[in-house]
Specification:
Layout: E1 17-23, H1 27-38, E2 43-46, E3 61-62, E4 72-73, H2 74-87, E5 91-93, E6 97-101, E7 107-111, E8 115-123, E9 127-129, E10 145-146, H3 149-152, E11 160-164, H4 168-177, E12 183-188, H5 197-204, E13 209-213, E14 215-221, E15 229-234, E16 240-244, E17 247-250, E18 254-256, E19 267-268, E20 271-272, E21 285-287, H6 299-318
Parallel strand pairs: 1-2, 1-8, 2-5, 8-21, 10-17, 11-12, 11-17, 12-13
Antiparallel strand pairs: 3-4, 6-7, 7-8, 9-18, 14-15, 15-16, 19-20
Helix pairs in contact: 1-2, 1-6, 4-5
The protein binds NADP nicotinamide-adenine-dinucleotide phosphate.
Length: 323
């Protein structure tokens, strides 16, 4: 685990009119922050978590970020991105945004502590783990139900864990979980997996991981610690079976963090619609990273989005006038 510096910066001031406020401190926000700070824009990042990096902080190894021929720890990459942006003057404060007023030339961002003002806003709020929505999921979250293998995998030494999903996350995180668990079973509703072939091959080669295609989760029954199991339904026949598991990790994709922006910004299936400059339909408001309506969501694409958005924001600030 990395030693994060959790000290709060002291320079942020709610009386300042910032050039740019970035909401969200994942790879897109941190890259935009780095570029904006280097453009000498007075930039503030609002990140609700004390550790920046977004989903990177819940990723063990990153193998496909250019420049690192050996896999790099997600938390290390996140920490380095944050340090680099701060070095150039990005201010980060840990507050949760609860409301936004984006209509005028001066944008107001309300957090649980203050109201911040800026000439422009970049939304980089990313996405959150999709929930299965079955009985027992919410009730047992943090008590056997998890969405983060890096965070919770070590709690299952020599235990049996179920992983739900069939994409890259389910497969990659299963490999991590297999370091601790005695057995990892990937339960997927079909036999058609979205995970990249290279990751599928690694899973197949791992003797601790089994595939269980063709089953959907009907409920998670963890109330009785002596009899923890999932109720699964066989697709096609509808037959119910009981699957004993000490824990379940759910990796079934993500939903965008855009609740704050509903009715305020144009969305498509919940994601923010942007143009090639990452400009939204609201004057002075940009979006970057996983929160955007787009086809590929990776660290590499988030970083590119953030850099590009900052470039156009800088041009916008050069011409900015208060209405
Ligand atoms: P994903 O690729 O969208 O896959 C989601 C999986 O969950 C699919 O197998 C889907 O099944 C299943 N699913 C969705 N809703 C479900 C439900 N209600 N019940 C049961 N199963 C459900 O999601 P992801 O694996 O989280 O990956 C997200 C993005 O990040 C992808 O673009 C992925 O490539 C990327 N990623 C990349 C890497 C990497 O490159 N190293 C690592 C992790 C993630 P169906 O196929 O049946 O819909």
């Amino acid at each position: 685990m990395f030693d994060f510096n959790l000290s709060m910066p002291t320079n942020a001031d709610p009386n300042t009119l910032y050039d740019l406020i970035i909401i969200g401190g994942g790879p897109a926000g941190l890259t935009a922050g780095l570029y904006a700070a280097r453009y000498k824009l007075k930039t503030l990042m609002l990140e609700k978590a004390v550790i920046s990096g977004g989903q990177l902080t819940a990723t063990e190894w990153v193998e496909n970020y250019p420049g690192f021929p050996e896999p790099i720890l997600g938390q290390k990459l996140a920490k380095d991105m944050e340090s680099q942006a701060k070095q150039f003057g990005l201010e980060i404060i840990n507050e949760s945004v609860i409301d936004v007023d984006l209509a005028g030339s001066i944008k107001k961002i309300v957090t649980d502590y203050s109201t911040w003002q800026a000439k422009s806003v970049l939304i980089a709020t990313g996405s959150a783990s999709r929930k299965l929505g079955v009985p027992g999921e919410k009730e047992n979250a943090g008590r056997g139900v998890s969405y983060c293998a890096t965070c919770d995998g070590p709690f299952y030494p020599d235990k049996i864990v179920a992983v739900i999903g069939g994409g890259n996350s389910a497969f990659e995180e299963s490999i991590f979980l297999a370091k601790y668990a005695s057995k990892v079973v990937i339960i997927h509703r079909s036999d058609d997996y979205r995970a990249d072939k290279i990751i599928q091959d690694k899973v197949m080669a791992n003797p601790k991981i089994e595939l269980m295609p063709g089953y959907a989760v009907q409920s998670i029954e963890f109330a009785n610690s002596d009899d923890k199991h999932l109720v699964l339904v066989e697709q096609g026949t509808g037959a119910e079976i009981s699957f004993p598991a000490d824990g379940v990790f759910i990796f079934i994709g993500h939903v965008p963090n855009t609740k704050l922006f509903e009715e305020k910004i144009e969305l498509e299936a919940g994601y923010i619609v942007t143009d090639r400059r990452h400009f939204t339909n609201v004057e002075g408001v940009w979006a970057a990273g996983d929160v955007e309506a787009k086809s590929l969501r990776q660290v590499a694409t988030a970083v590119g989005d953030g850099a590009c958005a900052a470039f156009w924001i800088n041009k916008y600030i050069e011409d900015w006038t208060e209405n």
